[in-house]
Records
---
Amino acid sequence: AQSVSQHNHHVILSEAASLELGCNYSYGGTVNLFWYVQYPGQHLQLLLKYFSGDPLVKGIKGFEAEFIKSKFSFNLRKPSVQWSDTAEYFCAVILTGGGNKLTFGTGTQLKVEL
Amino acid sequence: GAGVSQSPSNKVTEKGKDVELRCDPISGHTALYWYRQSLGQGLEFLIYFQGNSAPDKSGLPSDRFSAERTGGSVSTLTIQRTQQEDSAVYLCASSLRRAGDGEQFFGPGTRLTVL
């Protein structure tokens, strides 16, 4: 069965620290990949997405993610986090061109301390 | 323009009662999705509507759950004979194109508490 794993459930960092959140998926076909973010009290919103092409994708607020097909991974990175990055981050996967559902990971709660 | 809206924002009900949750997608979005977010469980796909096609109901957890989408716009998720394990945040999302081809825009959710 298809699944998405996020290895870190809670991460605490100091401002200016570097961030890497892991995401691995198990799927039987070609996929589109997403990272969504939910800031406290706000809706889920798209951070970045990968459909095809350059496996290193850049999103909003300085975030980027790298798709490594051989490792079935789509890790999220940011070189220097800010207090305002405190949020819950969800990795999600969907089958290309026909799948109907986003499969989400269980989320990573990131807390950035001043 | 306006985003996805959901109502009510909070719903408290007694075990065994029926509840209806409403979703207004972004105007012009042909695809609509319902998800459930339970504590520590992430988001779980429930159902997907695309235009006038038959919905993908593969994620509905039991026959107590059903959903309709009238006129290709507003959707209602109905849970009959609610159970305590139905307590969760129910999220609706819409997208301009079919699932997999584009970004899904999420509503604020309805927090359901079954006592």
---
Amino acid sequence: DAGVIQSPRHEVTEMGQEVTLRCKPISGHNSLFWYRQTMMRGLELLIYFNNNVPIDDSGMPEDRFSAKMPNASFSTLKIQPSEPRDSAVYFCASSSGDRVSGELFFGEGSRLTVL
Amino acid sequence: KNQVEQSPQSLIILEGKNCTLQCNYTVSPFSNLRWYKQDTGRGPVSLTIMTFSENTKSNGRYTATLDADTKQSSLHITASQLSDSASYICVVTVGITGTASKLTFGTGTRLQVTL
């Protein structure tokens, strides 16, 4: 299995630009998570999908962030407009169960730098 | 407030030595506790997942313990190797029902194994 695939691995952009991060979960997994990791705050949940439906988006910072999961094999996280404080590593993870029982499999992350 | 605290924040040990990482949590209701290993520039990888009834769980040279009464967990690494150099993250699942549960992350212990 190829694991969770994220793209791009690195993104450098200027403040105000739109950023789109992409994720392909492991085939057969029905839960998908987007996390943000910074040195100061560690890993923080942004949004959680179950069977393509957003279940918990309480971690989405503000209206500049949006996430979609149009089908079971693809999800996007969009930031528009981007700001320097959005600089972080964004991880996508998937699991075959729910948040209680499912083991999380993380992608390699997308490192975002907003200048 | 649900919290997960890890100690020490960082640790340097000589190759071949043993070490123990600590995780204290204050969450309710508790569902399970996980340890993840995160190599620099990579996504976290699951080491163990322990439920309320499990006291000890091993994965090769990694042994996790859980004391649900004192709400403490430890990760013991035996005969450390250079490849053990990584961040180790403790994660507690809060809640007992699937989609309503939440994962609470510690900020991690950064381990460096040297020659």
